[in-house]
Design goal:
7 helices, Rossmann fold, 24% strand, alpha/beta
């Protein structure tokens, strides 16, 4: 594994994860031809340095603005990467759309169900075990602000492998 991409909708906590995982090793970069930033840093995983890239927020892989164009280009440019899809657990449907698009393109994916504490406050029930059974990928409830679930999320990155969208559809229907 060369690198990990943090992807998700805008304002789901990707940058909080990035800052927690990289500490002080942050390098800002501008993508050529745009005013939108992505951020690169490094983290230790199983004794080696892994590049971590915080991608601008996007709602889909069909870009509608510059930030989404950067997100799609970064994904396409890094096909050998593991993607950590950071989803707002209280708005799961919106985030799952993007996650399924990434899975469909053959990337190994781990899902961070972030803002897990909001699901409890808003009385939203998410059946994590059922979601894992359907998607067959690692899924970890997290609260980026407090660091809850972060250790488990990192430990599950090595379990990511490409899922087959046809298999997922078969498990849902």
């Amino acid at each position: 594994m060369e690198r990990i991409l943090l992807m998700g909708n805008p304002n789901v906590g990707k940058s909080v994860f990035f800052n927690r995982l990289t500490g002080a090793n942050v390098i800002e970069s501008n993508y050529p031809g745009t005013t939108v930033d992505y951020t690169r840093g490094y983290m230790r995983l199983e004794g080696e340095d892994i590049e971590l890239i915080d991608i601008p927020g996007t709602f889909s892989l069909e870009p509608k603005d510059k930030a989404e164009e950067v997100a799609v280009k970064m994904l396409e440019k890094n096909h050998d990467s593991v993607v950590v899809c950071v989803l707002d657990a209280s708005k799961l449907e919106r985030g799952l759309y993007l996650a399924l698009e990434i899975i469909e393109r053959g990337y190994p994916v781990v899902i961070a169900l972030n803002m897990w504490d909001d699901t409890m406050v808003k009385n939203i029930e998410v059946d994590v075990e059922k979601l894992k059974a359907i998607l067959k990928i690692p899924i970890v409830p997290t609260v980026a602000i407090t660091g809850e679930g972060l250790k488990e999320l990192v430990s599950r990155i090595g379990d990511a492998s490409p899922a087959k969208i046809e298999d997922i559809i078969g498990r849902v229907s």
